[in-house]
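Researcher: We're teaching a course module on how sequence relates to structure. For the next exercise, students receive a sequence and then see the predicted structure as tokens, so they can try to spot secondary structure elements on their own. Here is the exercise chain.
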Amino acid sequence: MTILFGFLFLSALSAIYVSMESNIYYWDFATGFSEANHLNNLYHSHPIKAVGKIFSSIWKSDYNYFSAIIPSIFIYLIKNQREIYIQTILLIYCVPFSALFVYIFSKVMGTHKLLDILFPLFLVMTNMVVVGTILRGFPDVGGLIFIEYAIILAISVDYSKNICIKKAILLGVSLWMAFLFRRWYAYTIVTLYISLPVFNYFYFNMRGNYGKIVNSVKNFCIAGVSSVVMLLVFQFGLLLKILKTDYSIAYTAYKKPLNYSIDSVLNGFGYYVLPIFIFGIIFMLMEKNKKIQLYISFCFFNLILSMVLFFRTQSPDIHHILPFSFWMMMIAAYGAFCIFNRVRGGGVLRAISCVYMPVALIIALFCDRPYHVPLLRLVLPMQFPPLHIDNFQTYQQLVDDLKRDYAPYGSIAILSSGFVLNTSMVENISNYHLVTENIAHVDLRDHFNPVLLNAKYVVIVSPVQTDLPAVYQRVITVPAYEILNTRGVGKSYKRVGHSYELRPNVYAYIYEKFESFSAEQISYFNQELYAYYPDWEKKHYGYKE
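Model: And here is the predicted structure for the students to work with:
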């Protein structure tokens, strides 16, 4: 019943939140909804093709359609609106995740009292990482359900007692499904395969026993083989891609200083909850119940190791923080549990906390003024306002003009990769009735895609917009500056139509390619790229007509 009230609270918040947003969703903010929308359209026109699309994406894509299956069915049955999509994520992913979180906590702590589980429930259902990712359209919280199920198996099944083939396979499949849900859960899965065998053994055994250790090793080997078999059977194409890609190089543009990554995690989790997390670590060291101490240590180990592994590749965005926040919430919930049950007036503190957390969440989503006060910024969650722009009509006019006056006569490329304008934003504003070219955005991840310069029309923003430091997005800046300054390949373009002021002194322009490039123009363009990336010349990553 308490979880139902939590869902209704978040449901009401999300409805208000989405109603305040402009239709400017882009990249990951739009991916989940667009996938669900695409499947929904296929259900109407080609149901068999929809099934094929799901399996082909699972086989080879970094971002497959698995997480979009259930939301697409809800959209199909009700209405194709973003609000329905967000509500679906809340219902089918957030509610089970929250329920399992409370179940694990209560089982380990050995309590089923409503007062003891209120704080963990309020904590998880008001955590900005959880709520923020959902409001931005990420279904990623659903992957944690499989992580939670693996933990439930670990605290329910003694894998050292005997060989449990079915339950070992179930564990392996559960961990694989977290990876299936989102590829970047791989870091958490690796840490779990390291920590779960030790945790499970000592959760049920206080001392070492050779026979039991052998059983445990065998069971977790079966689980590991099960995960690998599922990966080979269903995602072999993706596996080959992963083996051929050095992600530490490909995601260099997304790697920021360590202090930035740590601050992102702590800010997402909430500095206002950090003291309780620290108390959880302190109480863990003093805990007399060995099972509880082992579990909190297990959470802390997974938190640290998964962060270390992830930060080696890139800095986290809000959805990447989900597993880190999960471990931190477990430790914080334990810290609060100890405080509330050890100090005089614990009931009052519990009541204050359970009122404060939803109020703080509302402030973080809808109020700006408190964040101008430094002290309040520390005691409030990360600010997370709705996506909104005052001059949305200008964006709508640009998209309408492109759709009406240019799309019928040739392909269109959006040569802008910033938060002011990008390909994903344009397509979303058009409700996916305007399809633009899929150009490269990040140098080392995408390399140069010739489709950009093959497009009949190119939209450029001046000043040139990038979402990362320009040194990582030469595939955007080099062609944009050539066209804007009428040099190199830019000599074959002319400006057409109107200018669109997207921000004060920031304009979007439409350019038409009126003639083919000369050999000299192509050479000039390629040499500009090769000056930044000399190895691209050998790999033929330049432009070839």
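Model: If you want an answer key for the exercise: Strands lie at 412-415, 457-462, 493-503, 506-513. The longest strand covers residues 493-503.
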